[in-house]
Automatic annotation (TrEMBL):
Its EC number is 4.2.99.18. Its cofactor is [4Fe-4S] cluster. The gene is nth. Binds 1 [4Fe-4S] cluster. This is Endonuclease III. It comes from Bosea minatitlanensis.
Length: 233
């Protein structure tokens, strides 16, 4: 058959990814009981002095480490801890303060723009609803969830790479994407653990259940974990 007249090859069928089955409620409760016993009052590692500086810090933390953000924001927040002061400082000056952070040019633009919007539309106050927060430049669902949780005490589940990994490895809320995991956590996490759940999961993923080299030997959930990523001594 002539090459030009050869019928096109059929595309190979996409591989189906089989998710692990979510744990039973009693097992999930045991996981969070252990987290609470080990760290009753977990805290976020981004430094802030009020709801506004928290919002700015979380916006800056995208694709950056908390330590790197804190190093940049300490001198910034010392002179600009309100939307009014941030707008007065201006984009060029903000950029100079945060130039050690990834994507700093766009982030400086967003920080000044969100500060201006807080002044003109919200009376200079950080709003306490997800819809209003997500209307601000540079603020997505994850950032809004963090602010709602820390600044306003809301039971929200901000899913970053650490939460996503741990929720899947421990089968608390298996999901193929961030939204599936977030919705799964909303259903799976017992209400009394909801306030601190995302902090426990973030810290566990950051310091113990690491992406490439999980430190399973010292993991408080070791005997419950059946992840294929588990490192057996």
């Amino acid at each position: 058959m002539d090459q030009q007249n050869r019928p096109p090859r059929k595309a190979a069928p996409a591989k189906r990814i089989t998710l692990a089955r979510a744990r039973k409620p009693a097992e999930i409760r045991e996981i969070f009981e252990r987290f609470r016993a080990a760290n009753p009052e977990p805290k976020g590692e981004l430094e802030s002095v009020n709801a506004f500086t928290l919002l700015v810090a979380v916006v800056l933390s995208a694709q950056a480490t908390d330590a790197g953000v804190n190093k940049a924001t300490r001198p910034l927040f010392a002179i600009a801890d309100t939307p009014e002061k941030m707008v007065a400082l201006g984009e060029d000056a903000v950029r100079d303060y945060i130039k050690t952070i990834g994507l700093y040019r766009n982030k400086a633009k967003n920080v000044v723009a969100l500060s201006q919007k807080l002044i003109t539309e919200f009376g200079g106050e950080v709003p306490a609803t997800r819809e209003a927060l997500e209307s601000l430049p540079g603020v997505g669902r994850k950032t809004a969830n963090v602010v709602l949780n820390i600044a306003f005490g809301g039971i929200t589940h901000a899913v970053d790479t650490h939460v996503f990994r741990v929720a899947n490895r421990l089968r608390i809320a298996p999901g193929r994407n961030v939204m599936q995991v977030e919705l799964g956590l909303e259903k799976a996490v017992p209400p009394e653990f909801g306030r601190h759940a995302h902090h426990w999961l973030i810290l566990h993923g950051r310091y113990t259940c690491k992406a490439l080299r999980p430190e399973c030997a010292r993991c408080i959930q070791n005997d419950l974990c059946d992840s294929p990523d588990k490192r057996v001594a």
